[in-house]
Amino acid sequence: MKELIVSLHDVSPLTRPVFTAMLEELAALGVERTSLLVIPDHHHRGHMLADVGFCRWLEELAGKGHELVVHGYYHQRPARPHETWRQRGVTRVYTLGEGEFYDLPKNEAFRRLAQAKEDFARLDAPAPLGFIAPAWLLGGEARRAVFEAGFRYTTYLTGIQDLRAPASVGFIPARSLVYSCRNHWRRAVSLGWNARLFSRLKDHATMRLSLHPPDYQHPRIWQQVRRLVGEALRERRPVTYREGQALPLAWPEPG
């Protein structure tokens, strides 16, 4: 049977209220398991382990079949002196300073990834198998660090990468539906683009829908999300990245 992967990006104590409401509505539609992309210390504004209620909430969701995924560490890339025009365009315009792993040196990337794994190990939940960079921006050095840190997969806007396989065969094409809500024209373009993309992806085995907190706060965006999810579930079952057919079903837990 074809599958639908709904991933919730930027999960943290700062965004918990929005995602609580979003998860309730998704469950009512039939999506009772999602991949939760969790930021350990969102913009340095409070580590997740310092919020006991948030940790218990994550554990409860994991117990119900949701998947926990590491999503950066701070989800923030400060501006640097002497940046190129390309670096400024990607990190300041495209991501508004949130492309944390876009050009992070390998050693620093590995340090943050190792710390994230330690943080998640303190939760009563399965250890994360996936790491997904903020805005899907994963530089070459950071990608090597993700592999060496023992993560089994990552994703990009255009697909899913099995990190255990050679790059030439480990990439599974699966473009994600995603919205940009920063201003009116971006929302309008997103609505049109995702309606067309949804139609193009109907015959694909795996469909991905990536949601962010602002999506729930704009009625027209959320109305389309509800409609597309309802239509997708007529012929798809909701799964997480961890259990989807795009990747091997039986992976051993990381040591």
Molecular structure report:
The protein contains nine helices and nine strands. Residues 249-255 have low confidence and may be disordered. The chain has one domain (2-239): Glycoside hydrolase/deacetylase (TIM Barrel, Alpha-Beta Barrel). Strand 1 (2-11), helix 1 (16-29) and strand 2 form a beta-alpha-beta unit. The strands form two sheets. Strands 1, 2, 3, 7, 8 and 9 form a six-stranded parallel beta sheet that branches. It has a three-stranded antiparallel beta sheet with strand order 4-5-6. It has 255 residues and is of the alpha/beta class. Helix 7 (184-200) packs parallel to helix 9. The two termini are 32 Å apart.
How would you summarize what this structure contains?
With 255 residues, this protein is an alpha/beta fold. It has nine helices and nine strands. It has a single domain (2-239), classed as TIM Barrel.
